[in-house]
Specification:
α3 runs antiparallel to α10. The protein is globular. It has 329 residues and is mainly α. Helices cover 81% and strands 0% of the residues. It has 13 helices and no strands. It starts with a helix and ends with a helix. It has one domain.
């Protein structure tokens, strides 16, 4: 049932994505993308920096618990992003895979799972702060207008969800998950791991290092901010002069729209609509806004496809290792 729903969401998003492109002079949109030229490579490199910062922040939360190379966190963070962006799965599917791969690298399962929960919370919270900065820039530019109030109302709705996620982690509610898995194992052996995962103990271990949590938040904010450079560079290469405030609004609120559409794989069609709406506030044509959206999707492919290939290689090696051991024996 869940798989069917995900595929349906993917097909709806794909139809919306294609429709918005073909009804707005697709050739003109592609010309806008082509105008960026060498800037496309620079944008891919900027996205790599953003993902490296996100991986660094993830590693910071675990640095006092386990000793692993930073490159591992960065590599797994790229895999997480690739799955979330390119595969027809809810945008946390890659995070589940990332936690499992981290456990395969030697991190206790409970600690690996807890690190994903904490990292998702910090990502969401810092993205919220980033979006608020964009809303503030929008308010300074246009004042107390209906569109500013509507966007502000949408951001306020997310506050209880983030707060509830934090309280669930801190008040021990994930201990219920551990108990539930124990019950499942008793009645349906083999469906869940035999050994207790103990997510709650992992969460306590991570939150004990408050300084590392604070630094992880700072690094996540830096990662979100790199997207401003992507927007500015793309518009500049297309011949559109934009201010820092305009690039901030387009990036921060565009990312917020994409995250809000988590049920649609890759936010297909939703991201495009968001850029059209936000771009119109600053006088961007629909074609320019759609060119900008396509440019933002280019790193998803350029980085995501190698990320998916790396994931499959990891899975292949994991599946092949027991066979090699049996042959050796």
């Amino acid at each position: 049932m869940l798989r069917s729903t995900l595929w349906l969401a993917f097909l709806i998003g794909l139809v919306a994505f294609v429709a918005v492109l073909v009804t707005n002079d697709f050739a003109d949109i592609l010309r806008g993308v082509a105008m960026i030229g060498w800037g496309l490579l620079a944008i891919v490199l900027i996205r790599l920096v953003a993902l490296s910062l996100a991986g660094t922040a993830w590693g910071l939360t675990l640095g006092h618990c386990v000793r692993l190379p930073l490159s591992l966190y960065v590599g797994l963070r790229i895999v997480r992003e690739a799955i979330n962006s390119l595969l027809p799965a809810v945008q946390v599917g890659g995070d589940i895979v990332g936690g499992r791969l981290l456990a395969q690298a030697g991190v206790p399962a409970g600690l690996a799972g807890a690190s994903i929960l904490v990292d998702l919370l910090l990502q969401t919270a810092t993205q919220g702060l980033f979006a608020v900065s964009g809303l503030a820039a929008l308010w300074l530019a246009f004042g107390d207008t209906p569109i500013v109030r509507e966007i502000g109302g949408g951001l306020i709705i997310a506050v209880p969800a983030v707060g509830g996620f934090f309280l669930a982690q801190r008040l021990g509610l994930f201990a219920l998950v551990d108990r539930g898995m124990g019950v499942i194992q008793r009645f349906l052996p083999g469906l869940v791991p035999d050994e207790p995962i103990d997510l709650q103990a992992g969460l306590r271990q991570i939150y004990a290092a408050r300084g590392r949590i604070a630094w992880a938040c700072v690094v996540h904010l830096l990662g979100w901010s790199t997207g401003i450079l992507e927007i500015w560079l793309a518009l500049d290469r297309m011949g559109v002069r934009s201010s820092f405030a305009e690039a901030l609004v387009l990036e921060s609120l565009g990312q917020a729209v994409r995250s809000a559409a988590f049920a649609v794989p890759g936010a297909l069609g939703i991201q495009e609509g968001g850029f059209i709406l936000l771009g119109s506030l600053f006088g961007l044509s629909t074609g320019t806004a759609l060119s900008l959206s396509l440019v933002k999707r280019l790193p998803d492919l350029a980085i995501g496809l190698p990320g998916l290939a790396a994931w499959q290689m990891m899975e292949f090696r994991k599946a092949k290792l027991p066979l090699l051991r049996r042959r050796g024996a």
